[in-house]
């Protein structure tokens, strides 16, 4: 039986500004199962990134409930690696912030970096790495504190198309290999289909879940191989229509 690790129940979020109230989300209800990869797409400006802030507890809902059963790791649109720190020191940064900077935790973080192709780059600086390698380092940094849920805020959008395809494959493989739960925000329909177990489609603001789809690729988890499957184009056309209703 699946274990629920994150749930939004009838969530409303209201922003208060000098111009008045803005309802960002209303009747927002969905859940995420442990080990599941969920992608969320929606119209521009519908508040997708706000949803991640609600999930992580950075914002409190005006009404409704957000419940989670685990810790969070956040991966942003840009790698945000500190240029004056080596890759190894960048990966250790969350351990320092969370006061977990012990030999045991550093060794685990270093082992992750070596496992996923960064062994020869740990003493390099971010400027010496390609965009794709920097983003891989950013993911390892996010994993350093062993979070239960990864919140991915359009983490590939700053990369060129070719690099993006390669990094998407790398990130998917790492997340699934480490058996992490992931919640991805993206504006890229193809990216959502190729990565996720399930895709949620949000309405325009005030956002709520209009559609939820299980991706029917069976055991095929590799993003590039999914793009080659005959049902890929059908999913793209359906999600495109739903986004533009």
Describe this structure in words.
This protein has eight helices and nine strands. With 245 residues, the chain is α/β, with parallel strands linked by helices. The longest helix has 17 residues, at 161-177. Helix 2 (87-97) crosses helix 3 (103-115). A six-stranded mixed beta sheet has the order 5-6-7-3-8-9, with helices on both faces. Strands 2-1-4 form a three-stranded antiparallel beta sheet. The mean pLDDT is 91.
In short:
By secondary structure, the protein is of the alpha/beta class. It is 36% helix and 26% strand.
- The global form is globular
Q: Structural class, judged by helices and strands? A: alpha/beta
Low-confidence stretches: none
CATH topology-level fold name of the largest domain: Rossmann fold
CATH architecture of the largest domain: 3-Layer(aba) Sandwich
Q: How many domains would you count in the coordinates?
A: 2
Number of strands: 9
Strand order of the largest sheet: 5-6-7-3-8-9
- Terminal Cα separation, in Å? 35 Å
> Assembly state here?
single chain
CATH superfamily of the largest domain: P-loop containing nucleotide triphosphate hydrolases
Rounded radius of gyration (Å): 18 Å
| CATH class term of the largest domain | Alpha Beta
Topology of this protein?
Elements: E1 4-17, E2 20-33, E3 37-41, H1 48-56, E4 63-68, E5 72-75, H2 87-97, H3 103-115, H4 131-143, E6 149-153, H5 161-177, E7 181-185, H6 189-195, E8 198-202, E9 209-214, H7 223-228, H8 231-243
Parallel strand pairs: 3-7, 3-8, 5-6, 6-7
Antiparallel strand pairs: 1-2, 1-4, 8-9
């Amino acid at each position: 039986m699946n274990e629920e690790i994150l749930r939004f129940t009838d969530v409303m979020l209201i922003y208060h500004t000098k111009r008045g109230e803005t309802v960002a989300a209303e009747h927002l209800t969905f859940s995420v199962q442990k080990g599941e990869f969920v992608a969320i797409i929606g119209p521009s400006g519908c508040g997708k990134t706000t949803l991640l802030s609600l999930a992580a507890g950075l914002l409190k809902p005006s009404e409704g409930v957000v419940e989670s059963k685990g810790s969070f790791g956040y991966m942003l649109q840009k790698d945000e690696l500190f240029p004056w720190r080596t890759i190894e020191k960048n990966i250790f940064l969350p351990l320092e912030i969370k006061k977990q900077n012990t030999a045991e935790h550093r060794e685990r973080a270093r082992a992750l970096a070596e496992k996923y192709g960064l062994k020869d780059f740990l003493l390099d600086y971010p400027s010496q790495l390609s965009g794709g390698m920097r983003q891989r380092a950013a993911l390892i940094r996010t994993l350093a504190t062993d979070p239960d849920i990864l919140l991915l805020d359009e983490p590939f959008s700053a990369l060129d198309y070719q690099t993006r395809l390669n990094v998407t494959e790398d990130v998917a493989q790492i997340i699934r290999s480490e058996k992490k739960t992931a919640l991805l925000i993206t504006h890229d329909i193809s990216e959502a289909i190729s990565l996720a177990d399930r895709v949620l489609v949000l309405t325009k603001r005030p956002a709520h879940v209009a559609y939820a789809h299980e991706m029917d690729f069976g055991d095929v988890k590799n993003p590039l191989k999914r793009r080659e499957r005959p049902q890929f184009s059908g999913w793209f056309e359906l999600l495109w229509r739903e986004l533009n209703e």
